[in-house]
# Entry
Amino acid sequence: MTAPLTPPPPPNDRSSYQGGPVPPPVGAHAVGTASGAAYDPHGEQDGPGTPAEVRQAVVTAVVIALFGALLGVLWWKLAPTVPLVGDVTGDTWVVYLKESEGEQAAGVDGAFTLLALAFGALSAVVVFLLRRRGGVPLVVALGVGGLLGSLLAWRVGVWLGPAQDVIAHAKDVGKGVTFSAPLKLGAKGALLAWSVSALVVHLGLTGLFGPRDPEPDPWPAPGQHPSGPYGEKSA
# Structure
């Protein structure tokens, strides 16, 4: 009698491996890429919350904030002027509004708010087109960059506008001569208009046109599920 022949191991038996790269198990690629993060061979991932995305968010916030200088210039050019008049009582100079019931001061705040809303919407559209995947760091960058840009715009507009010392300005132009009041942002809440507009528009664009999670595969690869249809191991 002869000894029974031992059947060769199946091709996917890892015990028969003799050298070379180890092939990944069935379904490993699907599990590794389900989170959407790409693996970096240098030890760094490119996905939500990774250092690469944080750096991109910081750059985004800085660039958005720098555009606040342009907002300040437009505010200085487009905001209505508030007319003032200087008068002398004895040796004391007094400055008062030429039109006590005028609405120019409210128009100054309104111009800043409308410009900030437009800048916020535009920045959200540009950021969405460049980074459709979004992420928490990018959303934070939009909010922080919009706030810093508004602060910069406020200071630039005040610096470019009429002189802040209204008494000295009244003395320079003379008694009874009309001159423009310095730019003043009365409603400080307007500084949040850029950030609010950017976040709302970006949220809407992400909800309508953002990437969707892939649908699960209804037909798994062979061997991915070792159990049978009733939870028992296949024979």
